[in-house]
Every structure is written in structure tokens, then in C-alpha cells.
Amino acid sequence: MNTYTDDFFQTLPPTAVYQTTADNSAELTLTFHLLPDTNENALQSTSNLSNTHPKKRQYLSAAALKQRFAVNDNTIQKMTEFAQQAELKDVSSNAETHEVTATGTIAQLSQLLGVSFHIYQDDNNNPFLAYHGRIQLPDELRAHITGIDGLNVGLQAGYVPSKRLKMMQIAAEDSPVQHFIQQPKKQTDFAGEQEQQQIEGYSPQDLTALYHFPNNQGEGQTVGIIALGGTFNPSDLATFCTLFQLEKPDVQIVGTEPWQPPQSKFINDIEINMDVQLVAGIVPKAKIVVYYARSFPDGFRAVLNDTENEVSVISTSWANGESSVSQAEKTQSAMLLQQLGLRGITVLAASGDYGIYQVGSNNKVPGVNLPAAYDSVIACGGTDLFSNGREQVWHENANASGGGFSIISPPPAYQYYALSNYFRQYPSYAKNACATPDLSVNASGVNYTTMIFKGKPFKAAGTSAAAPLIAGLIARLNTALSYRVGNINSFLYQLIGSNAFSSNIPGNNGLPAAVGWDPCTGLGSPNGINLLGLIKQTEGYWE
């Protein structure tokens, strides 16, 4: 008997426009991700860790984690037989990564899964493949499948750029969606890149001084950057380090840069170089590893499967609105984030640049963005930082610090007090929902941070700039403490109102600021030295 599942129900961006049906003869490669048999016990271990002081935590090695999250051989065999019986080709399995991969035509996969495939267009006129219907899976397999990659081709994760560049482009000839489209589409002209003037802004040294970061350079740390696109430019990093008299860090690339449409490619190039440079600016003696990925679960898996690099901190500047993420992907991400927590890895993500609205909704759908809103990720919002240290909520025209309340998910326990305190001040906004951001630093496009792009100074702004800056702080904390803080969210919320944060930051992002936590800047901007001191002070009595 086949079971319908809403977990894999197609979730489309609010701005998607239907185009045509997909070509039934085109081939599609799917990857089925399988649930580890020991998942419940392993996740209980994660819960125990979050209630333990970071110094007392016993994190798992990569080998121990793989053993704990093993997939039963029988499950892999059943999944492989399911694909082979459907006459799919190139069927392969990997027990360590919990995957079975197979290739079939659109017609074969439509019949196998009980869905139909179609072409849509996103708000940048880029085509992508999507499916209609509810996926059907055999009863004996349904409970063991956490996700299916490959059902969407060309659907880009949202980005969190400092400025949205208005460039128009249909499908490039090398688009992975092209062979699914029955009628060829005419390619339009690329609108071109904006000329950038010579600019001056905050240096890394300015920011570490203004936010009182611990006095080290991230020695012994490895910071992973999950990139859903963009080309890293080593020459720009070298220029950046020379400009600010920094030691040039070791940067390693894992994976292959995924295809992106031209207008996304340009913005993604800015994103990835911003991430690398701002991390390098804060922790020049840390190692930096860029993980190219097609999705956030793909990126999290890449870190977990990396046997060469001991990543201690992860940062990403990409985001999707929560309404655009399927339940299957949310389940995958949550499980993988729990595993990263068991390894002692801190994960940070940009909260968004559209205030109370979800990324990709054209400022029409309120809510939060993922992965920032997952309860084991530090959601990084934005402030406007002045040279005297004063801050206000980052809000420039249509852009603002991403923050607000989920329209889907309830709050984690550690947010209860912070939210109730905010709702006492603003009772009309009260709701039972998780909220972002958690912490904030400078994201201003006026009082901006300087990066190098294509050999010239460039504005690093938006919460895309905030995430790598706070990731650098976490790496400095790890170095200063000589242990990993790991998933520190619960501990941060216990410090609400303390001198670890500057929390009385005025302004709004569509919602009002408040004393304590608020949906504009979260707990506030960090004072690194004070935060370090409070972590040390609580080593003796917080179990």
C-alpha cells in the first residue's frame, strides 16, 4: 500500500508563475535521504547538551556521530530495490551519508511518485522545475525517508543581499532547467553591473574595538561557510588583507559551485566574498572552508561528512522564507543541525533584509526566514552602528533588519521569557511563535563595513554582513575559552538584560524595538569581553 505524504508537498515561492508542463523524456536524478535508526536517542543527547555549560559538554567525534546515526542495512536494501523495480538507472547507495540515488525520466518518476512535473518562473524570470500533487511512497519506506533531493531544478534559495539589483534575465543556455522545457525561451539582455565608486567604511579592527571582541585572532578555529552560489576570488581576499594589514588566512573550497542564473550569480559573487572577507577580518588566523551546496541540508551534510576539517563555527548569508520550505526539508535541516550540535559546532545565519517579511515574498508575506529561525541556529540581525558606538535598528528604505514571528513554528523553550517580556510591552503582537533575530551587529549601508569586490572597495552591508561578523566573535570566544561553545542559544537567552548585550537599541523594522529582546535586534548587539566573562563565571555552577 502507498502512503500519501504532505511532508514532501511542493512549496512554491509566492511570486512563482506557471509556464508549461515538463518534457516527459527528460531525465531527472533524485537522491533519497534515509532516517538513522537511532535518531530519537541521539536527539535526546542533544537536548542534554543544550542544558549543560559548554565547558562540561562531551561532544562527539565524527566517527562516533556516524555510528550513532547509522542507517540499517535493510532500509538501504529496500530503498535500492524500490528504485530498481521501477527500472530507474544508475541506482547507488551510500550508508555513511544515508543516501540512495537514482535516475529516471520525468514520465517514470511521475508514475513512481504519483505526481506531475511542471515549469514555473520566479520573480527574476528564471525558470525552475516543480511538481504537482502529493508524493506517494510505500508504507515500508515512508517512515525511513527524510527527504528527496532533485525534485526541484533551478529553484534558487533566497539570498539576503545588501541591495537587490534589478536585473532581468530569462534562462541562460547552460541553465539546468533548459532540457525540461518543451518550448525554447528567448534570452534577454543582461542589464549589467552597477559601477562601484571608491568607498570608505569600517575596518575589521574598528568593529572588533566597537563590539569589544576578545583579544585574539581565532587561532585554532575552523570556520565553515555554506555557499549556495558565487565564485570566491582569492585576489580580492589578498587585497582586503593587505588593505587592513591582516594575515591572509588559509581558505579551502569543498564541492563545486552550483549553477546560478546571471543576476543571482552576480549577487552570489558578492555574498561569498563578503562572507570570506569578513570572517577573515575578524579571525585571520582561523582556517576558512567554503562548502558549496545546492540546499541547506546539502551544506550541513557536507560539513558533517568532511573528515579533513574540524569545523567549529558555520556561517551562511543565504535564506529562504519559511513558507517556501517544504516540511521534508525542515525535518532534514533540524536533524542535521542537531548532529552539528553534537559535534560542538555553532551555526549562524543571516535573519533577512526585509524587516518583518519573508525573503522572496516581495514584502507581502510576514514571518521568519530559514535557516536562521531554527532553534539551534543563531539568527543574526542588523543595526546601524555609529563611530561613537551608538546604534539604532538597521532600517533603510525597503531594507531592514530581518525579524518577527513565525507563521508556522512555535517558540523553543529558551525564548519563552524573552517573548513574554516583549508581549507585556506590546500585547497586541502576542502570539505563540518562534521569533528572530537572536543577536545583531552592524548591517548599515550608510555606516557600512568595507570589503573588496573585483579589486575595488565595496560596501558590505545587510544581515549578510552581520552573520560572518558574529561568526568571527564565536570563533574568538572558542579560542579564548579553549573549548567550543557549540549550540549556545539557550545560554544566550539566560543572559537577557545583562551587560553581555547592548539591548536598548531604538528604532523599528516594521515592529517596534523594546528593552530586553525584540524582533528588531534580538537580545541586542554583543559585548564580546562581557559575554566571555559571563561564560567563564558560570562554568562552576551551571550544569
TrEMBL record:
| Biological process per Gene Ontology, one example term | proteolysis
For this chain, one GO molecular function annotation is: serine-type endopeptidase activity
Q: Which SMART domains match?
A: Pro-kuma_activ
Q: What keywords sit in the KW lines?
A: Calcium, Hydrolase, Metal-binding, Protease, Serine protease, Zymogen
Report the CDD domains cross-referenced here.
Peptidases_S53, Pro-peptidase_S53
- Lineage top rank: taxon: Bacteria
Q: Where is the Peptidase S53 domain?
A: 201-538
State what protein this is by name: S8/S53 family peptidase
